[in-house]
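Researcher: Going back to the complex we discussed earlier. I've cleaned up the inputs and rechecked each line, so this should be the final set. Can you rerun the prediction on the complete assembly and write out the structure?
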Amino acid sequence: MTDVSAPQTKKRTAFQALELDTRLLGMIGAFLVICIVFNVMTDGRFLTPRNIFNLTIQTVSVAIMATGMVFVIVTRHIDLAVGALLATCSAFMAMLQARYLPDLFGLGLGHPMIPWITIAAGLLLGTLIGAFQGWLVGYLTIPAFIVTLGGLLVWRNVAWYQTSGQTIGPLDPTFTKFGGINGTLGATWSWVFGLAAVAWAIYAMWSARRAKLAHDFPVKPVWAEVTLGAIIAAGILGFIGILNAYEIPSRRLERMFEVRGEIMPEGFSASYGLPISVLLLIGVAVVMTLVAQRTRLGRYIFATGGNPDAAELSGINTRMLTVKVFAIMGALCALSAVVASARLTNHSNDIGTLDELRVIAAAVIGGTALAGGIGTIYGAILGALIMQSLQSGMAMVGVDAPLQNIVVGTVLVAAVLIDTIYRKKTGGR
Amino acid sequence: MTPLCEMRDISISFGGIRAVDGVSIHVNPGEVVGLLGHNGAGKSTLIKILSGAYKADSGEIYVEGQKANISSPRDARRYNIETIYQTLALADNLDAASNLFLGRELTNWAGFVDDDRMEAETRKIMARLNPNFRKLKEPVSALSGGQRQSVAIARAVYFNAKILIMDEPTAALGVHETQMVADLIQELKKQGLGIFLISHDTREMLELCDRVSVMKNGRLIGTERVEDVTEDDILSMIIMGKKPDQAA
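Model: Rerun complete. Updated structure for the full complex:
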């Protein structure tokens, strides 16, 4: 940790030369500790490829929404309606693909356009509802807490009303590919994706360095860049390797061959590889990070969170900004609805219940400050991962359900406390 | 000579209270006009109408003789009117470059904000305004009052302001930094800018300004050339709300 008020000295330790985000390191450290402790307590069942695969696909839905919640909280608002909005979108998409499109529009069950029309319509609905809530907050200046508290009740029950409380399913087979285990890339394409990601990461580091040199800015020493690049590459490829190590059970493979009218060769094996839902999350993370760091919209979101008056006096339309932030949140809720309902292969009435709390907790554990102006996308995703590992780890260990929630609640408060102390020590940010 | 900027017969009310009542002021190129008065006299409100933060109920604004339509800060910027606010109006969580370019970010070919270019431009202008300024990567909350003030001033200077509004520019500053701002005002005057300056410090105003306008309870008491009045005259205008000749 460097003291920001002290004059910068030329001499730096090797560790400082890496210019790592100590906060991020702390979170990764906490995550690793959780993993190792649970792994010991479950006699090595926690860190198996199978459990890591499951953990990943269970995290996706909350993590996608948490990235949007970062923007909402950074602009000093809150969204309590995300779980309910997810349910409304999920119900709408379930009804659309199972009832409206086949019956009313006569497309017929299994028509290849059904999943795509459904997803597009669902995303549109989520965006519109989000924008509407944003309009209530931004233009009619009703506090976001109230608008979304009302929204929590309204959208939860709009979902109920749409389906009359029934479970709708099974969902379209293509649609369910976005849920996790039903749609994976397989070993080869997972490796291709991993290598492409490594190449892209290295290119991004290289071009950032070149841009800095072009302006005569100070850059990290070459060895530091190489070390960082190696760590990132090892992380990406290691993750792909673990997912690829989870093999499809041979019974299931046999059935897949039977469906195609073939007989499975002796000793044949295949991996699930990278789930499409995780690809979606990675896509969302990249886009949201780009928006946050490299677009005017992102700059205005953070400026408004830091000082709403300054933003307004600088000519930023903070009302419209609020609408946009909530619209993004709504779109991400709809995307999460696709993932969540596809994972369960049906829409159930209680889908997304209490998700608002998980999402807010993920964003806050990930370092988003409720006072506004501060937060990162990767932090929120890591926060979601930490929450999910705690929850499923305790379930595996056999902790009683009430105790599980007591622990999660305590961790949330403790995480914010540690963050507050950390910020005071590093110069009040 | 046409004034660089003229506000004619401006009035605005908030909930039945006339915060500004039929006030007219103007500034010529290369001139500094001071606005004096008690808290709540209407100085800041008047100036916020010019900077687009408020919209006047009645009255007109002319920039270089042309009627100007200012209803938002963005409009004001289009007329090259830049404002340095009393509260500094910086986003504390962002760095100097992001604040300098806030609302007018430089972008690259793909439409993404170009942080490197903005940082390079910030370095250039800061080298001119405040050579000791080094903390380019820190959020401005980590800066001293003077450094924050230089960011605010740099914002106005960088975008070629013609009319500069400074609301209590030295209120948060030490002696050395106040002198820095005073030097800068002289420099900008030479470049032909028109400056509206708001301050409580009567003596400082008499040093920095060419003319001073005194306001009380939303009304303009009078505008005097600084050579023609003493500090006591101004004080009596502020307190009594009367011109010196009437006060006698």
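Model: Worth noting: Residues 185-274 of chain A form one domain.
Researcher: Good, that matches what I expected from the previous run.
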